[in-house]
Amino acid sequence: MKKILSLFLLIILLLSTNKVVNASHYLNYEELEIHKGKLISQYTNSELKKHYKVVDKRKFSGWKVKTINNRAKATFISDTVFSYYNDGYTPIDYTYKSEETADTKFSFSTTGSIGLKTSKNEKGFKNGLDGSLKMTYSQSGSTKKKESVDLKFQVDPGTQVNLYYYGEGRLTNGVAARYIFWIRLDRGGYEVFEVSTKYHRLEKVRIWKKLFLI
Q1: What does the DSSP 8-state code read for residue 5?
Q2: What does the pLDDT look like over 112-159, one tens digit per residue?
């Protein structure tokens, strides 16, 4: 009996956990700010209750969808490339070179029993939810290109230089339920993040708040 109960709890935990696609997913960004709205995982059960009421009204067949945020503006820092600091008394010259593969893509996540497509050439939601959402994202999900980075800069005494990826995007999310013969088969939250722009940003910050003369 205990084994059956443990297995049941494990299934519930897996179904309620956000499902994501890859390591460069927006949920793995160092910083993500939604200007108006929030991630589907940040809504409480009581907040989602009124939205689920819309999709819980059964239908003969297909998806019922309730959008919460529609292409809400967002800014992000996906990852820090490097961080150099100079706690000495003379400037330090640095050269940074790199060839990277940059990509502009759509990222997806779900909660509940809604599934994700995980094949290399096809991304999105399973069981026809893409069509019900009437979204215009590319099924391939990404446009890859190579770019070279060649930077020469000087780190002044008492300063730190940071290079990171900064970008802007759009967030769409909501809840959905799928029915066949009035029987509900899937129910949960969906979310799409679209990267609009992404580029390197170099900043210099002071690490010495005060300079004391001895």
Answers
A1: H
A2: 999 998 877 778 899 999 999 987 665 444 555 666 778 888 999 999
61 Cβ partners below 8 Å, 6+ apart?
Answer: 179, 180, 181
| pTM for the full predicted model | 0.79
DSSP string, 23-69: TT-GGG-SEEEESSS--GGGS-HHHHHHHHHHHTS--SEEEEEEEEE
7: three-class secondary structure by DSSP: helix
Give strand pairing partners of 202. 163
Cβ atoms of 66 and 114 closer than 8 Å: no
DSSP code for 132: H
**Sign of the C-alpha dihedral computed for residues 139, 141, 146 and 148 taken in this order:** positive
Domain boundary assignment for the chain = 2-205
- Contact between 104 and 142 under an 8 Å Cβ cutoff? The reply is yes
